[in-house]
Inverse folding.
């Protein structure tokens, strides 16, 4: 299946919506259009020529375990070499360890492109990026020197080991043990499951980050520490030593992402090295999880982009039926699907979501850069608040978009050969891993909303209000964009008020509405991004920009989102206000 | 995976909501609780003991084509013998040909049970039922005598051949040719694709109903006729003769329903017999399609029922986290998932949909019985109006429910071994085949709404209004059920008015909202069924019925649907009223 990176749209968001190169975030000054464009085009080329052609074949072939060795699908190894050669994994990582130290917003845009081209493949790199980030944040100087250069270069890859058969979300229950040794290392014993990129044949070594319980930490999550457990032990000179006591028990048969080896990992007295503080493993792991949640949010919409592109091509080529207002292809046997209003409705749902999501995620990455590069606590608070929305909302809607794209193909969409089933199957996991979306909603309502005395959520409302106030003199913008945004934002505030009033008395009253709140929040975020995008598009048109069609399309797409998606906020609010009673009233045995 | 037929709920709908045995529809008098219960329990036993155990293995193994012969998964043949032995296919078919002539409502209830247990398997029977129904409706006496007994007994099975590689919905484009022969038969040549149950090893013969173009019929759908093309020709004495010129080109690799052989069928001068009138094939095929659309609507929710049952079991057994209001399983390592509000929200979404859908479909079957057995044109008009709603709405929501059930399992839901992926993959096809759901919406808004001068839709509103008026004195019913129903019904009427006012000027204004209208209509239908169910449950409680817990659960579940699902009608209306502009404004090249 062919894939073309949406570099034009990315450029619009970077240069015209977020105006990155004039931002005061350190490092943003160099993000001039020519520079960012060169990076995105290069990523697009790799995606189109190398990664996308392996997407369907990787799905069909899957990974296999033979005599303890994991083999990835045909072609993955060569593609991984190309990924390494491009230095993509180090794009936003420190130069001291071989990275390029660019802002994370660039890594984010490139990440969307690679995920779209081949999500299962890109996870080998993505998990390594998260693992090395955790080592850089919590490791000793020696650990950083040992692991970071090799992992940034992708000579070695990384994994994250949390889940065990009897617990996923509730990590306090883990049983994997870490026994301290005289030399300061630990022996790790236990079983971890659902380990993405757990092993493979594309790198010399695999560096596992493993949550385990060392003696003396107490019950529950307090007893958890984080350990570095390499597949091959590393000598002091950096060369590889003997095989460590970690092996692959099996590769799971999954609904999708077949090209990624999801492994059962067995640790049998494996040598492990404490990463960060003893008994503070959860907080170290959160570094990795937060990045991973954003990454999964990106996957959520990115996997739907090639599905949309394929659906558009099919809708223009497949001749079926006639336009109700008169034949548009009178010399052919029928009109193309795209003349039909319901096909349009479906495609517009996808398009308006995808572009809104892209702007939202890049804004999120800009907040992250501001938080890290300017040590800006407000930005840190805001992206922390938005992380569960990005993860939960974008993955739910991304799956919906992929399913919608599949629907355009009719019966052909259900046949594996066509490739549309894969997008839906792959997208499905994004709603589940890195905290199922219900857990994201719980995190949002139970933790993030009240964090720091509610400052982050207040700041969010100020941004929305500020934007509306600043622009309400613009009539066109006001009617089509600001009014719907104002109404949606009011619904979000009303939902927050309801939680404050009722949640105090009964926490279930808030938590019964948490999922709806996450979606309500998501719509307001996309509404804000569309309003900002519309303003930028209007400005370009007023300045007689060359590419009028692009900006007019942008405005029409935004109007669609505002008119047809934002009204959902009222339903979410109505559900939230129905409270705990409908949700909680049945005894368990009544189900 | 285990499955228990929801016979208690079916009994409630039959006896207390629809009050079948006191209905004046011919044949309904015998539907006493003891009688219907015996049938449902027997079907439940077959489903639980024979069909459900083959569901996952059938998915894993799939069908295979070897030297032109199609083999079904291990165990299917024996199960098919059990299905035959029970006489289930003839439940509502004429006694003259070996059927039992029971009302279709019983076949419908039994159908739900079999689909839930094993959807892919049940399609072999289901398609045969549709095909023999078409022969009974349009065949000559000789054709009926030749085919009906063998097909009702399932010695022979049936298929329906419409789609060709270049056309599905737009059948006017078909290229399969029928050449008349001197003996009155035809020679059929062409290729048909996506033929469910196209061939297999469980029956002596397969009777294909094939759409083809015979000379002299003109362009488009007017030139189409319907033919009976048996796999083996049938001698006058009913014995099987030589193999006909029809063969399986391949079995498609699909996203789901792997246990059903979806075949490419090649017709190479195959002998065919005209069924019904020459050049009137489309209207004959509609007999089959209408039944098939209802059957797919049943599949839509039925496939989600075992997924719900599995999710409930998992939510009660899996220990993860603690209730926010205090531990409920303090002696265990954690509380069961079911204590968490968002898990409840998810399960209640499924439960309230499934029970509402069941009542809706059984009401639809009762309308069908009234139409056929009492020759009631009003009932015929109403079920014709509701058919696209049953098909489109119940399959969209059924898929959503199956995906939600899968979500309860977290990462385990994504692993094929658990079985939850299969429910989602199987459910996905129901939104596509027998007319993709966009086509159902088009049928509803473009055809059914205005049919017979709008009489059927007026009749529907009268039923809703009548029920509200009749019961508004009942305060409890009024607040929780009638008020929300009234509001939703008002939204539906407003949408209809919008279509009338705007659709006249621009048909795209109506068709841009067709999908939302289908969903809006679906919610009003389920709202009506919940209001009726609530009334019946209240009556039972007032009459000191033994099974109080059942009725109280019914009321609580209904309240959930009304409070949390019906508010969606406002969003659908808002979208509809946004008209054609947002949907249609982009030129095709802007996508």
């Amino acid at each position: 299946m062919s894939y073309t990176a949406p570099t034009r749209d990315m450029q619009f968001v970077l240069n015209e919506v977020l105006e990155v190169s004039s931002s005061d975030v350190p490092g943003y000054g160099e993000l001039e259009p020519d520079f960012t464009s060169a990076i995105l085009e290069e990523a697009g080329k790799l995606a189109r020529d190398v990664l996308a052609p392996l997407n369907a074949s990787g799905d069909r072939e899957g990974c296999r375990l033979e005599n303890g060795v994991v083999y990835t699908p045909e072609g993955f190894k060569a593609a991984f070499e190309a990924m390494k050669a491009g230095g993509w994994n180090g794009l936003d990582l420190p130069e001291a360890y071989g990275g390029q130290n660019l802002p994370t917003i660039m890594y984010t845009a490139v990440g969307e492109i690679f995920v779209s081209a081949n999500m299962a493949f890109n996870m080998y790199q993505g998990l390594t990026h998260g693992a090395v980030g955790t080592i850089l944040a919590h490791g000793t100087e020696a650990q950083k020197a040992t692991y970071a250069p090799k992992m940034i270069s992708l000579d070695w890859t990384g994994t994250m080991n949390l889940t065990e058969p009897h617990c996923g979300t509730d990590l306090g229950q883990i049983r994997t043990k870490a026994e301290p040794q005289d030399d300061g290392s630990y022996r790790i014993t236990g079983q971890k499951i659902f380990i993405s990129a757990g092993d493979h044949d594309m790198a010399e070594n695999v560096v596992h980050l493993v949550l385990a319980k060392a003696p003396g930490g107490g019950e529950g999550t307090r007893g958890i520490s984080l350990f570095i457990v390499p597949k091959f032990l590393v000598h002091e000179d950096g060369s590889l030593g003997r095989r460590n006591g970690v092996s692959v028990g099996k590769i799971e048969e999954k609904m999708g992402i077949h090209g990624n080896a999801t492994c059962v990992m067995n640790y049998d007295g494996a040598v492990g090295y404490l990463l960060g503080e003893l008994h503070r493993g959860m907080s170290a792991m959160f570094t990795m999880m937060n990045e991973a949640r954003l990454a999964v949010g990106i996957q959520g919409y990115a996997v739907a982009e090639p599905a949309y592109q394929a659906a558009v091509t099919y809708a223009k080529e497949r001749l079926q039926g006639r336009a109700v207002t008169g034949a548009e292809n009178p010399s052919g046997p029928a009109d193309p699907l795209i003349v039909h209003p319901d096909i349009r409705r479906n495609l517009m749902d996808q398009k308006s979501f995808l572009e809104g999501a892209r702007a939202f995620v890049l804004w999120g990455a800009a907040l992250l850069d501001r938080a890290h590069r300017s040590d800006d606590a407000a930005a840190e608070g805001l992206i922390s608040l938005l992380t569960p929305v990005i993860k939960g909302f974008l993955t739910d809607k991304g799956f919906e978009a992929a399913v919608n794209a599949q629907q355009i193909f009719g019966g052909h969409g259900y046949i594996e050969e066509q490739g549309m089933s894969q997008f839906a199957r792959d997208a499905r996991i994004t709603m589940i891993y890195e905290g199922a979306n219900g857990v994201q909603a719980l995190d949002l309502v139970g933790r993030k909303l009240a964090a720091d005395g509610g400052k982050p959520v207040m700041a969010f409302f100020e941004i929305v209000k500020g934007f509306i106030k600043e622009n309400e003199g613009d009539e066109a913008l006001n009617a089509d964009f600001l009014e719907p945004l104002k109404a949606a934002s009011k619904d979000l505030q009303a939902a927050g008020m309801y939680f404050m009033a009722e949640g105090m008395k009964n926490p279930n009253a808030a938590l019964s509405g948490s999922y709806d709140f996450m979606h309500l929040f998501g719509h307001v975020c996309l509404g804000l991004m569309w309003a900002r995008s519309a303003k930028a598009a209007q400005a370009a048109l007023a300045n007689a920009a060359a590419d009028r069609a692009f900006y007019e399309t942008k405005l029409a797409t935004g109007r669609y989102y505002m008119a047809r998606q934002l009204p959902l906020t009222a339903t979410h609010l109505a559900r939230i206000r129905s409270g705990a009673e409908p949700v909680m009233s049945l005894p368990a045995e009544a189900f």
